[in-house]
Hints:
eight-stranded antiparallel sheet, 19 strands, 21 helices, disordered C terminus, alpha+beta, single chain
Amino acid sequence: MRPRLALASAAAALATALVPAAPASAQLPFAACSPAGFECTTLAVPLDHSGQTPGTLSLSIERVRASSNPTNTAVVALAGGPGQAAIPLASDFAQALAPAITTRDLVVFDQRGTGSSGALDCPAFDSISADTTANLAARCANEIGPRRAFFRTADSVDDLEAIRQAAGYDKLVLYGVSYGTKVALDYAAKYPAHVQSLVLDSVVTPDGPDVLRRSTFAAIGRVIGELCGGGACRSISPSTRTDLARFVHRLQAHSLRGAIVTPGGSRLHVAMDETGVLDILLGGDLNPALRAELPGSVRSALRGDSAPILRLFARAEGLNGIAAQIGGESDSAALFATTRCEESAFPWDRAADPSTRRDEAVAAVEAIPSSVFAPFDRPTALASESIPICIGWPDASPAPAPIGPLPAVPTLILTGGADLRTPVEDAQRIAAQIPGAQVAIIPHTGHSVLGSDIGTCARTALANFFAGVPIAPCSEKNDFAPTPVAPTSLARVRAHGRTLKTVRAVLMTVLDVSRQFIGDALAAGKRTTPGSAVGGLRSGHAVYLSTGISFRRVVYVPGVTVSGFLPFARKATARFTVSGKSVPRGRVAVLADGEVLATLGGRRVHVRPGAARAARAGASAAWSPRLPRWPALAHSG
């Protein structure tokens, strides 16, 4: 997932800060650059820090100077991936890490092979080809050539040390998110004397990521339990975990096929197997709207209504899988493949050919109890991470050596209670290796905690950590509670009589459309733009305009067709027409306070404020959602 949402800039405050003289030992010639308050430079580093292979790389670096830096320390922000450029996020990091940089400089750099630090590029990944993923990866490796041996985490660690020395800092505070935590931990193990403290957000273990996702599979039941805690799924199912297992087992026998409605209102035939369920679960790390819809959609599928789960599957596909992992606006797909394939611990001989590797991987996973992957199976585990890419990658470097012990430095680990990519259990395992490390578990939050938490827990934990205040447990309400099971007929809508059922069906349609726009905004990391559209669950579509949402024959409840306009203006009235075989035709008006006035089948209906308020609130959220500060910085996590 690539961060695309810009934060409110802290440029004004940064521009007015007093800039002290550079440390006497500094060698880097920083110069003022945009945005205001930032300084930029470049640093040439060896391609091969051992000196055995000639060549250099130029690293692009930016920093913000603190008005006072008594300890001559820099906070270094390390982005995710591998392959994600950090400099496009410099202003975001400045605001998010404000408690840490009052008396320390902030340093942000594009790691080698990303962004403006010589981003690696593979034309093989850009072409439309019938080749398998493994063949594309092999082509990419050959396009990069022998240089691919020098884009590992260990190389970035030595780059970071070169930056520290050239800039003249005595110590570093390392903030890493997702893959960036791996760089931070490896640096801390190799250069412990130069680490003042660590902030690890969505931690990737030093020996990870696990290419079989074992900790992910183990955490699924707990994450679903948190989502449905406090009876939140009581109206959906007696046991959402049992439902999930039943559905996955059903898909193992037969894939699910059906049609979804595109944003333009046409129908598109799709098919999903059990890997699609895992894609939805992992997509929920980055988009809580997906997580909220999963229990009800699974229940619908078990009852024979495939529309909700197929729509959810289609929306999740853009946030997961190999295609998502090796592509992005500010990411280097080639760097992702290079780093992961050169240094991950795969269940095969690095010198083996792809066919032998495949056999060895299958044999290795067959030796693992099937319960480790439940409710999924071994083939799903083999296909779920980087094995499909790297099975065809010819390694150019030796296997990485294990890192040394982690230093006893002040450490804050931020972990999302709903994160399946880098689960709470992984964070706790790392904390046990760092004496005194504090773990802040942020409930109802997925991957990339500091950016994804729409509450205050993560920011409070960060501020307290740098203030020397112990981190206290935090509780937050779930802003994305499980959504109800979609009715399959007007008769299944809970209300008394056809007229009131019709009114309620209209409101449910409005709320569902609003949820889809919110989910799309979360996936994009920015407010919905005019002209955007979403398909109705059963048919029709809705278009997002600058003043409201236009409904064009949208069907959520079968037999209930809704058209009309939902304005964003608080005092405006929403007006809809309703038609269909199952309902009395007519008009429904929703006033600003949630009061409903309708004329259906020639009968006037007055409904006091209540359920309609939720629909109006949903529309407002679609217009200006409480988005995370940036979507999850994820690949490896």
